[in-house]
């Protein structure tokens, strides 16, 4: 049980790390398998760790969630993100039932054809992405995962996991809500956490 201001929130959560491998014979991969056996907090996918394999890892995570867990919400985030858990739980405790997928919404973002983030027309033929939440952190209900899991078989992953998730959600008839944008800040920031100033060095702060 967690007391958040005047709210009393009863919750049970599970933290899971979704990882790939460096090299299947590398000692780090061996240690990951050992940690998975001992702690049960890893999803070790059959995919090599790379910036360009994030969507494949995301697909593995979605499939794992769909097959293994019953939950109200899932938060997808990165390992360099500060999460103010009491504020997140407070928001979820009062979340309207019609909001299914939310975060910092990127609406009709142009597709880049040059540079690190480029996609060729063969990879993605449209000039703009379907609406999606930036990958630093977003929250969805279980019903969204159930809808999206069906589409994994029929859709080739994009390079970018956040736009990929948004495209799957859009195909499933789910559009992200901007109602909680204030909880997802895409910049260096200071926040008050348990009465103290907290400086955030990363680009993302969630739930401040």
Automatic annotation (TrEMBL):
EC number, UniProt record: 2.4.1.-
GO molecular function: hexosyltransferase activity
Record-annotated membrane-spanning stretches: none
GO CC aspect terms: Golgi membrane
Subcellular location: Golgi apparatus membrane
Keyword field contains 4Fe-4S: no
Membrane topology category: Single-pass type II membrane protein
UniProt xrefs under InterPro entries: Glyco_trans_31 (IPR002659), Nucleotide-diphossugar_trans (IPR029044)
Keyword set, alphabetical order: Glycosyltransferase, Golgi apparatus, Membrane, Signal-anchor, Transferase, Transmembrane, Transmembrane helix
Pfam families: Galactosyl_T (PF01762)
Any one of the GO BP annotations: protein O-linked glycosylation
Coiled-coil annotated residue ranges, if any: none
PANTHER family: BETA-1,3-GALACTOSYLTRANSFERASE 6, BETA-1,3-N-ACETYLGLUCOSAMINYLTRANSFERASE
Similarity comment: Belongs to the glycosyltransferase 31 family.
The name this protein goes by in its record: Hexosyltransferase
Native source species: Clytia hemisphaerica
